[in-house]
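Many introductory courses stop at the sequence. We go one step further.
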Amino acid sequence: MDVSITFLGGTGTVTGSKYLVRHNGKSLLIDCGLFQGYKQLRLRNWHPLPLPPGQIDAVLLTHAHLDHSGYLPLLTRDGYRRDIHTTPGTRDLCAILLPDSGHLQEEDAAFLNRHQLSSHSPALPLYTRLDALHSLKQFKVHPLHSRFDPLPGWHATFSNAGHILGAASVLLEVGGRRILFSGDLGRPDDMLMNPPDAPPKADTVLIESTYGDREHPAEDLLSELGPALQRLAARGGVAVVPVFAVGRAQVVLHAIGLLKAQGVIPANLKVFLDSPMAVSTTGLYRHHLGEHRLDARQVNALEHGATMVQTPEQSKGLARLHGPMVILAASGMATGGRVLHHLALHAGDHRNMIILTGHQAPGTRGARLADGEKSIRIHGQDVAVRAEVVKLNSASAHADGNQLMAWLRSMGSAPDQVFVVHGEMGAADTLRQRIAHELRWSAQVPEHGSTVTL
């Protein structure tokens, strides 16, 4: 029997990763992500999958970011009853991320209904916090480098992908084929995470391409962030930093701590981490020593490097404080969460600063800020942007084009085919061309919804 892959997300875009592998009447899903960004993409979250969730036989997750895990509560609510296979770090992060995602969706729907801002009456959440909590009961944990059988006759192995806690590449062995899913690959020089493992030999490779068309700058995060925070402290402003609660928040906190220790910025510069999810995630680094570069002392410094803001009342209380200060808050692309309130409050003052810390998907508020737009819409209101917008180019947790190519080269022998996924069109096609020209391997960018037989 043939093995086939259907690309249900993460093609032509960096969101919604889902890859359905079929063989001999069985179906296995690698990743189960939410679409984010453009409305046309977000609407895909409401479309049914090509087969009922109850007919999927196993799910494997590469990591916990919502563009890879955020559809799970919907899948389990709608009938998926089997195991969700992950690493320990991914399980721990999903226990934070998924209920928060459900809660945010309930909040957003309630806000739209309260202010009659939805074309649907009533606006409904995609899923609830309770749906997310139920999905967590189906998680089954496997350590890195330990072969397991998600289905009889199907073998899988997780290897370290860097990127964030628990992130893994997946080698799937089925029907005589060895299929490697890169997941999101981290940088070999990441400040927090260990470098990705060299990839195992495979016949078919699916490689991410988020940064497939660019190189990371030579300067590091400290040399980018230091001067920005010096300017902010000198003029007494407030820096609003939209961060991804998992990974990016901790990297920026670690960098601020180092800049204070080096005397680059004032040691008394106030820093607030206004995201319960990011606060909880920061605590996990202590439980996963060895999976990242920090030792116990550095993790302790990370946990004490900011005032941890938990309750909505504490968050609102930040509005009464004066600068200079730095507020880190989710979400990282300013698509929702507490950061919106801080942006609404502080974006209009030229003394203030908005620091963008990574990739901003097209269609998001973060992308509009990065493009220099002078007004953004928040909660139905237009907010003027007079604050200085700073784009950090070195905080990315993704491998760049050269690093992706180096990872592929380290496979040792050529696969039969490479599918370039999880990147915007330009990034994916640039990486495809490099693989074809530099490695002389067969490479293609699959279409959304397409199926290939291996």
